[in-house]
Amino acid sequence: MTQSTYDSVVVGAGPVGIACAIELKRIGHRVLVVEKGGLVQSLIGYPTNMEFFSTPELLEIGGYPFATRNYKPRREEAIDYYRRVAFREELPLALQEAVQDLQGTKNAFSVVTDKRTVSCRHVVLAVGFFDVPNRLNVPGGEREKVVHYYKEPYAYTGRDVLVVGAKNSAAKAALDCLRNGARVSMVVRGSDIGESVKYWIRPDLKNRIEEGAIHAWFESEVECIEPDSVTIRTPEGRRDIPNHVVLAMTGYRPDFELLECLGVTFMDDAARTPIYNVETMETERSGLFLAGTVCGGLNTSRWFIENGRFHAQAIARFLSGHSSAESI
Ligand SMILES: Cc1cc2nc3c(=O)[nH]c(=O)nc-3n(C[C@H](O)[C@H](O)[C@H](O)COP(=O)(O)OP(=O)(O)OC[C@H]3O[C@@H](n4cnc5c(N)ncnc54)[C@H](O)[C@@H]3O)c2cc1C
Fold first, then answer.
1. 324 domain-assigned
2. 61 Cβ below 6 A of ligand 1
3. Residues 145 and 287 in one domain
4. Band (35; pLDDT cuts 50, 70, 90)
5. Number of domains in the chain
6. Is residue 144 domain-shared with residue 239, that is, in the same domain?
């Protein structure tokens, strides 16, 4: 059954989706934000005590100041900030409602959710990439003890924890677990901790490895996960190590199946970059726009809040008739 008609439906109530809804509202659009989880669901899923890398002014949307107690905001401060902004703007939010399909054409779209069908003229996809973890495709990779969303270390005290990966999330999780009494090992594909790990975290982790507090297996891969052990392939041969928990900090990927279903097309590159006009953010499906981290495809560090939030203004500028169109 078709219900109300909107000028724009924004899919995803992450920081960038909220920014888009604000800017579209400001050009006079009747907007609906549809979010399959809670408000800023991805931030809810971050580690409990997570601190942002960015200073607060770089995470601001809608021109609202983000005042924090410390130099860098913490997860709960950011959740609080984005909620206050969304409520202050009185954004219509359809939470716990997943978009599944998009029918029709520009100016006459039907957005199909798991609850209803919504009519609108334009659609903005700000769906991020945090829902689909890169799984360990090894025997035992689906066991319950394999964790893709690290929250906090307390349950791992006194236990054997294997951290897979060597980027920021892996580095932070390894240090966090070590400092809360876990026995930590790391399996790293490359020969060193990732160069992209923040400058204040990398030396800390490297020193812990050098002093032997964390055992890192470099140029190694997980081969098999058993209930009480993990088999690792190392340059010196196979190793079986005792294990209770595997923190698979192997990153995430956009939901390509959903994007394809909604009519997004992709470049023929290694990152499967979605095709969109860099000035207007419009995809090859007229009236369908992309915003935020989803724009990078598998290159998930290309866009983040700091730079992705500006997609909102680009879309609003175009839809209010002030932009020329040029495709990538
Ligand atoms: C540990 C960590 C630290 C970070 N620190 C920083 C930092 O310091 N600075 C910075 O700029 N960035 C940082 N980032 C990255 C930043 O959090 C992301 O860039 C940001 O969340 C992206 O916002 P977004 O709105 O594009 O996507 P998301 O926040 O991922 O929002 C997408 C939303 O879409 C919803 N959704 C998905 N599919 C559907 C569907 N079918 N129907 C309805 N809703 C759907 C999801 O539930 C989600 O709420 C960090 C990320 C992590 C993991």
1. no
2. no
3. no
4. very high
5. 2
6. yes
Pocket test for ligand 1, best of 134, 200, 293 (most atoms within 8 A of CB): 293
Distance 211 CA to ligand 1 centre (A): 35
The rounded mean pLDDT for the chain is 95
Mean pLDDT of 155-164: 98
Give per-residue pLDDT as tens, 196-207.
999 999 999 999
Between CA 242 and CA 227 the distance in angstroms is 9
CATH of the domain at 187: 3.50.50.60
Q: Whose CA is nearest to atom 41 of ligand 1?
A: 99
For residues 11-27, give the mean pLDDT. Answer: 98
pLDDT confidence bin for 147, thresholds 50/70/90 = very high
pLDDT at residue 328 is higher than 50: no
The last residue of one of the domains, among 207, 233, 248, is 248
Would the pTM count as exceeding 0.85? yes
- Local confidence band at 321 (pLDDT 50, 70, 90 cut-offs): confident
- pLDDT confidence band for 322 (50 / 70 / 90): low
